[in-house]
Design brief:
Blueprint: E1 7-11, H1 18-31, E2 39-43, H2 46-56, E3 61-65, H3 82-87, E4 92-95, H4 98-103, H5 108-120, E5 124-129, H6 133-137, H7 141-152, E6 165-168, H8 182-200, H9 202-207, E7 209-213, H10 221-225, E8 232-235, H11 242-249
Parallel strand pairs: 1-2, 1-8, 2-3, 3-4, 4-5, 5-6, 6-7, 7-8
The structure holds phosphoenolpyruvate.
The site of phosphoenolpyruvate has 14 residues, from strand 8.
Length: about 260
């Protein structure tokens, strides 16, 4: 098995003004214990990236954006490029989150172009995939994951994807309080690793970090992280309060 340092990532979605984000990031950085064997990332709204980068300097907490646009610059009102988020202090970027796919019409082709822009800017792309409840009920989960992975990663080389992170986020579990069982998560993660292995080989697949996302909280993180193919978590609601998020980040210390 590849050496996969767990990654716990917080997606702050459209929450927190600049002062609120700076305050939460400062509190989080102050709560991180020394010697933590876990990578940590938070993704505030675009407006808060630059000031939050400032307070995270010197901390192990990495900064991510929640989206980007694939063009380098131009007349694209309201969009933000890879170079812009990188210059604001980001090392990571979330791509293809289900809320973008659902509410903003993002397609697998768009996702592919965004990953290209992230790779070209040396950002770590966090590719989100996952089925809806209707797709799961119709027995289409694997077919959906197949399409999202194949199309999202089409035409990339192994070198391009060296720092790729994938987040399996069943849409029915996001913000709903319904978490996939650890068995469901493991089954999907195992499947995704197998898919990646077919295209990119076993060494790459063994090193790929696959995060689980969907109503992760302090009470369920340990069981999810105990699954052999779950390498971290993408956390929405429970990442907003640093006192809650730190309990997820330090899941290894939890006695269950
Ligand atoms: C997310 O935003 O990626 C997410 C998983 O949200 P939540 O943890 O609130 O379900």
């Amino acid at each position: 098995m590849g050496n996969r340092t767990p990654l716990i990532a917080g997606n702050w979605k459209m929450y927190k003004t600049c002062p609120e984000a700076v305050n939460a990031a400062e509190r989080l950085a102050g709560l991180i214990p020394g010697g933590l064997n876990v990578d940590v990332m938070i993704a505030p709204a675009y407006t808060a990236l630059f000031p939050v980068a400032d307070v995270l300097r010197g901390s192990i907490v990495a900064l991510g954006a929640q989206n980007l646009y694939w063009e380098t610059e131009g007349a694209y009102t309201g969009e933000v490029s890879a170079a812009m988020i990188q210059s604001a202090g980001c090392s990571h970027v979330i791509i293809g989150h289900s809320e973008r796919r659902q509410f903003f019409g993002e397609t697998d082709e768009n996702v592919n172009r965004k990953i290209r822009a992230a790779v070209d800017a040396r950002l770590v792309p966090v590719l989100c995939i996952g089925e809806t409840e209707a797709e799961r009920d119709a027995g289409e989960t694997f077919a959906v994951l197949d399409k999202q992975v194949q199309m999202g990663l089409e035409s990339f080389s192994l070198t391009d994807l060296e720092r790729l992170v994938v987040a399996y986020e069943p849409v029915w579990a996001i913000g709903t309080g319904k978490t996939a069982t650890s068995v469901q998560a493991q089954e999907a993660h195992r499947y995704v690793r197998g898919l990646v292995e077919k295209t990119f080989g076993d060494e790459f697949a063994a090193g790929l970090r696959i995060l689980y996302g969907g109503s992760v909280k302090p009470s369920n993180v340990r069981e999810l992280m105990d699954q052999p193919d779950v390498d971290g978590a993408l956390v929405g609601g429970a990442s907003l309060d640093p006192d809650t998020f730190i309990q997820i980040v330090t899941y290894q210390n939890k006695i269950v």
